[in-house]
Amino acid sequence: MERLKAMCEEELVEHLTVEAACDILSLADIHSAEQLKAHTLDFIMLHAQEVCETEGYERLVRHRPHLLNECFRTIACQQLPLRCPAPGACNSNASSNSNSSSSRKRPRHS
């Protein structure tokens, strides 16, 4: 069964389109297809403007918004790789994030 899953992932990667990217990302997340998810995130990063105009993007916003965070972090890590958070840092629970962010002082902008 794992081999079949891998073959399906490879096929989806080879045929990624702007229109299907968000739906494929969602499916990859649901089925823990990490390689497919990584390839799809890279594809979305390269075609972000076009992807944001699709119906799949709207479905992602409504039904799986946590994946938008992953997309954003992927883009940020490509631009500033030395400041990229440790793997899994995005998945920490909300209470630990709120505690750490509330203890930091934010600079004021005039």
Would you write up a description of this structure?
The chain has 110 residues and is mostly helical. The protein has a single domain (2-80), classed as Serine Threonine Protein Phosphatase 5, Tetratricopeptide repeat (Alpha Horseshoe). The chain is 66% helix and 0% strand. The protein has helices at 2-14, 21-30, 34-46, 48-51, 55-63, 66-79, 94-103. The termini are far apart.
Question: The CATH topology, please?
Answer: Serine Threonine Protein Phosphatase 5, Tetratricopeptide repeat
Overall CATH class: Mainly Alpha
CATH architecture: Alpha Horseshoe
Radius of gyration: 16 Å
Report the sheet with the most strands, covering strand number, pairing sense and barrel closure.
Answer: none
Structural class: mainly alpha
N- to C-terminal separation?
59 Å
Instruction: Compute the average pLDDT.
Output: 79
What is the global morphology? globular
Which oligomeric form is depicted?
A: single chain
Question: If helices are DSSP runs of H or I spanning 4 or more residues, what is the number of helices?
Answer: 7
Total beta strands = 0
In terms of DSSP E residues, the strand content is under 5%
What level of helicity do the residues show? 55-70%
Q: How many domain modules? A: 1
